[in-house]
Amino acid sequence: MSINRRNFIKLAGYAGIVVSSGLPGLSQSAGSNEDEFYFVQLSDTHWGFNKKKLNADAKGTLPKAIDIINALEHQPDFIVFTGDLTHSTDDPKLRRARMAEFRDIVSQLKNKNIRFLPGEHDASLDNGLAYQEFFGDLHYTFDHKGVHFVALDNVSDPRAQLGEKQLEWLRADLNQLNKDAPIVVLTHRPLFDLESRWGWSTKDGEIAIEILKNHNNVSVFYGHIHQEHHHKTAHIQHHSARSLIFPLVKPGSEKKGKIPWDPTAPYKGLGIRNVEVAKAGTDYDLYELGLQAKKDG
Fold it and tell me: How many domains does one find in the chain?
C-alpha cells in the first residue's frame, strides 16, 4: 500500500526527499494489494539529550516526527524504532524516567503497532534491564504479510556483540524458513565492519552475516551511525537510518564527530524513513523524510 500521492507530495514539500533501492524478495510488480504494505523506521531519538549547540530543538524533533506520521492519510502497517530511544545516563532512576517520558510521547502516535529495539544508550550500562521493563524483549521475531522480521540485540552486551546464545537462536529461527523466504533484519549497530574504530560494527556480526547468507532474500535496517548509508555484503543489503537528534560525520572521515546545529538550516540531516514493500519480486522504495522547520502561513 503506497501513500496517497497528493498527500505525499504535500508531505515531501514539508519533509524531504525520495530515494529508491532494492529489497530482495519483494516487489511492487507482483503479488496482490493485500500483500503490499509499508512501515516507518525511526532511529536514535536520544530522548534526554540537551546540548543546544548540537540540537536547539532537542525536545521538539521527536514530536515533529510523530506529527509527520500522524498526518499520513494512509497509516503504515507498523512503526519501528531501531535503538537509542533515550540518551545514556549513569543514574538508574533518571534512565527509567527518560524511558517513561519517551514511552508517553510515542503513545501519541495514532498507529499503535509499534516495535522497539534497544541501542547502547538504552541498554549497555545495565545489560538491558531497564529497557526490558518498559519495552519488552531485547531480540525477537515477527511475521508480516509473508515477510519474516528478525530483531537482533547487539547492544546490551557492552562488548558490542550478539553472543553465541543469540547466534544459535538466529540459526534455529532461520532454519525453519525456506531459503527464498523474504527476511528483514532489524538491529541497532551495523552487522558489518563499517568503522570499528568508532564502534560502528558488531564484533561477531560476521558470524550473523554468514548465517544470513544461507538465505537468498535478506535486507538489514539499522541505526547507530546517525545518517543514511547503503552497503552490500554479498547479496545482503544494509540500510542505515538518520537520527532524530543530531547527524554524525561520514565513515572514512579523519575522526568521529557530531555535526553542530546550523540555525540557517535547522533539522538538516535529521529524519525518518518510509519503506514500501510488495511480495515476491526484487524491488522496493525507501522514502527518506527529513525534518524541517514549519513555514509560517
Answer: 1
